[in-house]
Amino acid sequence: MTLNVLDTGHADWEDRKRVLASGIREARPDVVALQEIVKSADYDGARDLLGDGWHVVAHPCWSLDGVGAVLASRWPFGAVEKDAFRETGRIDAAPWCGVVVAEVGIPAPVGPLLVAHHKPSWPRGHERERETQAVAAARLVENMIGDRCRHAVVMGDFDAAPDNASVLFWRGRQSLGGMSVCYRDAWAAAHPQEPGHTFSPVNALVRQGDMPEEEGRRVDYVMVRCDDYGPTLHVERCERMFTQPVDGVWASDHFGLVADLSLPVRPGGTWA
Predict the structure, then answer these.
(1) Quick one: average pLDDT of 230-243?
(2) pLDDT at 267
(3) DSSP conformation letters of 107-165
(4) Is the C or the N end of the chain the one with fewer CB within 10 Å?
């Protein structure tokens, strides 16, 4: 699951937290990427929202007022690498952007899974930064995989639509910075004809927020890494979450995204 929770300084956090926590419990995810989570000396937003029993890795940078991102898993983490994107251009507007790539100790038959929680720059005009950040994140994943055959998933709030260059790069539609990768977009796999906007003026918090002219975009993603023959995990299901208010309360200005992934019937590169 990936979810931008909208930081506690906007709308009524206590009411929104109840809706968020209930929805997460109902979805029962094994791995969660949370953005705009708040952490301070006396408050842990991730723990407050998720409860006990989670292993948590924080992103490398946080804003001065304690806003950032975390990756949480029901299984312990192994190796963890981080990149704060300090060499990718204009980052003053996005002080907590970055990526965490962590080995999640999922048991056999899936085995250890590499999960990248990617959060690039958000301003509309910063696609050059998002392109450079996508390349940096993808390279970090590839370096951690090395010459091993491993499953990998990248997810998060990419702040870019499917036809933006940074997302086209992830989807294998174009190269950037002398590098190319290919990931299966879980939403597109499950709903090939649906736009699936996750930041939409249908949501009252978007209309009330600092982007009143927002036209609606899909900016939140779960993606599965492909080898030469295609994705190494099968997308069974991918759905949006929190697309309606609960008792008049919108959970966040983003809709969440949850995907069920499984092993394919047989691995790519083999004939039945």
Answers:
(1) 97
(2) 84
(3) PTTT--EEEEEEE---STT-HHHHHHHHHHHHHHHHHHHTTS--EEEEEEE--S-TTSH
(4) C
What is the pLDDT confidence band of residue 2, given thresholds at 50, 70 and 90?
very high
The predicted pLDDT at position 234 comes to 97
User: What distance in Å separates the CA atoms of residue 20 and residue 189, rounded to the nearest whole number?
Assistant: 26
pLDDT (0 to 100) of residue 57 = 97
β-bridge pairing 31-40 and 2-4: parallel
In a domain, 166, yes or no: yes
Residue with tokens 């209309």: 207
pLDDT tens digits along 15-70: 999 999 999 999 999 999 999 999 998 999 999 999 999 999 999 999 999 999 99
Question: What's the DSSP call for residue 101?
Answer: E
Which domain CATH number covers 79?
3.60.10.10
> Which domain covers residue 129, as residue numbers?
2-262
User: Does a structural domain hold residue 272?
Assistant: no
The contacts of residue 244 (CB under 8 Å, 6+ apart) are: none
Q: Are 272 and 41 in contact (CB under 8 A)?
A: no
Residue 240 counted as domain residue? yes
Cα→Cα distances 26→83, 165, 241, Å: 32, 35, 11
- Helix residue spans in the chain (DSSP H): 13-27, 45-50, 127-145, 165-170, 186-190, 204-208
